[in-house]
Specification:
The complex is a heterodimer.
Chain A (H helix, E strand, L loop, with lengths): L1 H23 L18 E6 L14 H10 L4 E3 L5 E3 L2 E6 L4 E6 L13 H13 L10 E8 L2 E6 L6 H4 L10 H7 L13 E7 L3 E6 L12 E6 L3 H9 L5 E3 L6 H6 L3 E16 L9 H10 L2 H8 L5 E2 L22 H10 L7 E6 L3 H14 L5 E6 L2 H9 L5 E7 L5 H9 L16 H12 L3 H18 L2 E14 L2 E2 L15 E2 L1
Parallel strand pairs in A: 1-10, 1-11, 14-15, 14-16
Antiparallel strand pairs in A: 2-3, 4-5, 5-7, 6-7, 8-9, 9-10, 11-17, 12-16, 12-17, 13-17, 18-19
Helix pairs in contact in A: 8-10, 13-14, 14-15
Chain B lengths: L1 H28 L4 H6 L5 H11 L5 H14 L13 H36 L4 H15 L2 H15 L11 H31 L2 H8 L4 H29 L3 H6 L5 H10 L3 H29 L1 H4 L4
Classes of the chains: A alpha+beta, B mainly alpha.
């Protein structure tokens, strides 16, 4: 009996050790050291900070989903990394009149389900997008989509809309196949069908999405056979995973990790200005911020250079105005407010606040924004303004700022289309107060007029002039402290080549190859 | 015994109703509109309104709750995620295996480290071993998991390259998260085992056993341990139940797609159906683990069995 017991214990130990050894061994696909020739790497692993929500472009409008959709779907027109418009599924387009653009589709384009791309798919897609509560606003100006013949389609707007092409380059307008969407039903977002260089293969929910090269692609084929896009939500872990070789590309490296990646000889850090801006808004509907002098005074009292240095470790740049340098018609001739406490005090005295006042700065629980709030709180003490920092949970934050309960608040904006209409209208037009984007409740009839005119103008020079003028007025009216223009930071392994960052953040992976 | 188990299982019904009502009420009154959260900070008013209608968020509070209970009871349907449109059941069940593995391995590490250390510490009270063990236990309890996890990653993944730093596919992926979770639970178990053993080994029957000339190892392992185990099992059960609810920080650090992270993400994005389903699920697993612990008592101590009627 005792012997049996000992034997049992021994066997259990051997079994446990064997399991451990098997578990610790590298998976077979990583190659065997005894192999005579190493197998060429054919899988690119990318890490981003969240899982996609849905791969139905009309069911969501979040960055992680767009980044995956970009590889699967194609739009009528493309915006390259310089934000220039280029042919996409439409090989050419003509402006028929002020309201209508006619697109000639590329012929012989196949969807991943074998169906051929037809004008009817474009009509179906755009009309479906219009019905979507997530992306309806991106195509909202479209009035009619008309099929002329199998490969020709006309898109009309109710009134002239100069930014139409930029909006049709948004990943939310990726062309869908009507049959695939109908067949997919409610689950379409989990089995997407596009025309892009990669096909959807598998989705381990919350963990990773796998794509495989589309061999029937109509354009330049992708260079790597498989792509795995992993969800690594913790920023530090994502960088560590890049360092330890678990992933080939890490998106959104944090400013605090920049040095680590730069100094690592087996990694490359990519830094490119993006389309994001971070601002500190004033509730201009409320005293004392309804007085432009107070808003200007605070702009002088806050040293944005020190914020960029301390919070963003020198990544990005202090903003000059409401639009970052990558946005078309961005007015980079505007004068930055600059740090001038005396000027700030003089303006406050003029407005009747020489003894300062009490206020609050709202922020959500984003670490960088909380840091900014603390710095601003400290700097405002110099002009006798006592600001309380209120950290509000994101949901409550959006609700509170939309309802105008706040005094000052910190928020960001990404002008994804790189067209000033996207970056100014929602944020500064008086019709957009609250949830729609204008959380400063700023209103200036002159700005409204310029934004309205530029939105419908077809003359490029006139548009540019109107936008530049609007930015100048906004800069002087100071509904924001123009704080920070962002930068995209990505880290790649040294052998990853052909990777370029797109300012809008949805980077192409089909040009990437291993050296 | 069977009747006891059945009765305990039936008690789950009011527990679930109570829990679902409380969670529903809390989420309902939490500021933050799910439609705004889903559409983002730039959503036009009419689109928010359209989505609210689609999701049925405009109905009165009690109507929404009644609809939820009715669907759950009549159609066994606890809804679908607002965000991903996947079924709540699918979302949770696809993540549960990872959570179960993580919790199981964590508790295993904790028991392997904690119970023997506790026993030795008790039998050699105030010895060098006892002092070192207690200091380590104190560190284990106090050290935040996220920090410990990062230290393990830096040492074992980056410096030594032994284990991967994230993911949860193979056994090697599980080692570091299990150690991270296990060591803090081990500390609690060590302290509990030690104090429970100390109490038991001072009792008369242990002195009697020793007086009979029984070998010390038999006295400890057969006479003392069994009696000292009851509170230890309770703590192990509680730890296991707690870990099944999701070890959010450990899951985040090691990028493990478990129930904890799903819950936190869903609370942030006001994905009510997932939060609701998740809390119900955690309540059930916690209750079942507790029931198992109670049943286990009966096997360890036959005197308790007679009380289960």
């Amino acid at each position: 009996m005792l012997k049996n017991k000992k034997l049992l214990v021994l066997l259990s130990l051997v079994l446990a050790f064997a399991m451990f050894a098997v578990g610790c061994s590298k998976p077979a696909d990583q190659g065997n050291v005894d192999d005579p020739a190493p197998v060429a790497k054919d899988t690119l692993v990318v890490g981003q900070g969240a899982d996609a929500v849905s791969l139905d472009p009309h069911a969501t409008n979040d960055q992680p989903s767009s980044r995956v959709s970009k590889q699967i779907y194609e739009t009528l027109v493309n915006q390259n990394e310089a934000m220039e418009l280029q042919p996409g599924l439409a090989e050419s387009w003509t402006q028929i009149d002020d309201l209508t653009v006619e697109f000639k589709l590329k012929q012989g384009v196949k969807f991943h389900n074998g169906e051929e791309l037809k004008a009817s798919d474009v009509k179906f897609t755009l009309e479906r997008a219009l019905q979507s509560s997530h992306v309806g606003h991106i195509v909202g100006t479209i009035d009619k989509v008309e099929v002329v013949d199998e490969y020709t389609v006309r898109v009309s707007t109710a009134e002239p809309f100069a930014a139409l092409l930029a909006h049709l380059a948004h990943t939310a307008t990726g062309i869908l196949n009507e049959k695939a969407v109908t067949d997919g039903g409610e689950a379409y977002g989990q089995k997407p069908v596009g025309t892009g260089p990669y096909k959807f293969s598998n989705w381990v929910v919350g963990d990773k999405i796998e794509l495989v090269k589309n061999d029937d692609y109509h354009g330049t084929p992708a260079k790597i056979q498989n792509i795995v896009i992993r969800n690594i939500s913790d920023n530090t872990t994502r960088t560590i995973e890049l360092e330890s070789g678990g992933i080939d590309i890490a998106y959104d490296i944090q400013p605090t990790d920049v040095k680590r990646v730069e100094e690592n000889t087996s990694l490359t850090l990519l830094r490119d200005a993006n389309l994001a801006t971070t601002y500190i808004g004033f509730n201009a509907a409320k005293a004392p911020f309804n007085d432009v002098r107070v808003r200007q005074a605070i702009n002088y009292a806050v040293d944005t250079d020190s914020i960029v240095e301390a919070v963003y470790q020198g990544v990005g740049a202090p903003s000059k105005g409401p639009l970052g340098p990558n946005v078309w018609a961005s007015n980079q001739n505007l004068e930055q407010y600059g740090y001038d406490v005396d000027k700030a005090k003089a303006l406050l005295a003029e407005a009747g606040y020489e003894n300062g006042f009490k206020t609050s700065i709202w922020t959500n629980d984003n670490q960088q924004r909380m840091d900014i709030a603390e710095i601003v709180q400290n700097q405002l003490k110099a002009v006798n303004i006592e600001a309380e920092v209120k950290v509000v949970e994101w949901g409550a934050y959006l609700e509170g700022t939309a309802a105008g309960e706040h005094d000052m608040f910190i928020l960001g904006w990404v002008t994804v289309t790189a067209d000033p209409d996207y970056g100014l209208y929602a944020l500064f037009h008086s019709s957009q107060h609250g949830n729609a984007g204008n959380r400063t409740f700023y209103a200036n009839p002159e700005v409204d007029k310029l934004l309205d005119e530029a939105r419908v103008a077809t003359d490029v020079a006139a548009r540019e002039e109107a936008y530049k003028k609007a930015q100048e007025i906004i800069r002087n009216d100071a509904p924001w402290i123009f704080t920070w223009d962002g930068e995209n930071l990505a880290g790649t392994a040294k052998n990853v080549k052909g990777f370029k960052q797109h300012p809008a953040g949805h980077h192409k992976l089909f040009t990437v190859y291993f050296e | 015994m069977h009747r006891y188990i059945l009765r305990r299982l039936l008690l789950l019904i009011p527990v679930m109703l109570g829990v679902s009502f409380i969670v529903f009420t809390m989420m309902y009154f939490t500021p933050g509109d799910p439609a705004v959260m889903m559409l983002g900070e730039s959503a036009p008013e009419h689109e928010v309104a359209r989505l609210r209608e689609e999701l049925g968020l405009d109905d009165p509070y009690l109507v929404q709750y009644a609809r939820y209970v009715k669907n759950a009871v009549v159609h066994q349907d606890i809804g679908q995620s607002y965000k991903t449109k996947r079924l709540v059941f699918t979302e949770i069940s696809s993540r549960f295996p990872n959570t179960l593995k993580l919790a199981g391995l964590g508790v295993l590490v904790a028991v392997i480290l904690g119970v023997p250390t506790g026993i030795i510490s008790a039998t050699k009270q105030y010895s060098l071993f006892d002092n070192i063990a207690m200091v380590l236990a104190l560190i284990g309890v106090s050290m935040p998991n996220f920090w410990q996890g990062l230290l393990l990653i830096i040492f074992f993944s980056i410096k030594l390259g032994w284990f991967p730093s994230s993911g949860f596919d193979t056994f090697s992926h599980m080692v570091l998260p299990a150690l991270t979770l296990g060591t803090s639970s081990a500390a609690i178990i060590t302290r509990m085992t030690r104090s429970s053993m100390l109490e038991v080994i001072r009792q008369d029957y242990i002195r009697t056993a020793r007086a009979k000339g029984q070998v010390e190892s038999v006295v400890i392992n057969q006479h003392a341990l069994k009696n000292a185990l009851i509170p230890v099992i309770t703590v192990i059960g509680l730890q296991f139940g707690y870990l099944l609810g999701g070890a959010v920080l450990t899951e985040s650090i090691f990028s493990i797609t478990g129930v904890g992270r799903l819950m936190v993400d869903s609370i942030k994005s006001r994905d009510y159906p997932i939060v609701q389903g998740g809390v119900l699920f955690i309540a059930i697993t916690f209750s079942v683990v507790n029931l198992c612990v109670d049943i286990l008592y009966a096997f360890v101590d036959p005197r308790i069995k007679s009380q289960y009627k």
